[in-house]
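Researcher: Good morning. I'm working through a list of sequences from a screen, and I'd like to move beyond sequence-only analysis. For each chain I'm collecting a predicted structure so we can compare shapes side by side. This is the next one on the list. No need for commentary yet; just the structure.
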Amino acid sequence: MKNFFAAILFGALTILIGCNKGTSGGPGATTPPSKTPVVGQTEDTFSLVVPSTKLNQGEAKIISVAIKRGKNFSEDVSLKLAGLPAGVTFDPASALIKHGDADAKITLKAATDAALGDFTVEVTGHPTKGADAVAEMKISVAKQEPGSAVNTAADAAKAKWDEYTAAMQTQLEQFKVKYAELADRAAKAEGQAKADLDVKVAEAKAKLDAAALKIEELKSAGADRWEKVKEGVANAFDDLKKIFE
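Model: Good morning. Structure tokens for this chain:
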């Protein structure tokens, strides 16, 4: 009976490992601790979890690249994709998993003449310090059949809405980083410089909150009416940019 359960456990572990090929990164990957955990991520390291994806020619799809963090690893991790099939692109090109986030959203887009077949894409996570982590993502690209769902105007509109929403969300996260840096400068300043920076911090916070509300409005608008709120979103982000210029 023990051998039976051991065989099942071994098989399950083999399946899990085979589904998530890759290497860990972070400072702990180059200077590993004396003890590594039996289960879970090694201290001060991280690894990426990526999905297998199927695309039709002419289709856009949002995927989530997740991160598994070991104890004491709290770095930002930028993402890069290599080995994409011809005609398949991803957005945003500078995808980032922030230190407090569990994943990052990426939009994969297949051109109408994208290469067909099954492909293995290398996803690299580059931390602010330490070694890179690498994971393999399987992508299958299928021929677009005439009259299929992704050929409809509604699907095209949804793809554009998804892409724009993801791009603006990424910009919002970048502005949050700039806001944190500004607030930190204000906290360390003194005298008139501090007073001036405090005013700017308060203004930046108001603009940041306004932009976040516009993002929520964009998300709730849906693919059928997002164009109507797009101008308001753009204006909110223009106001936010001026604060940090």
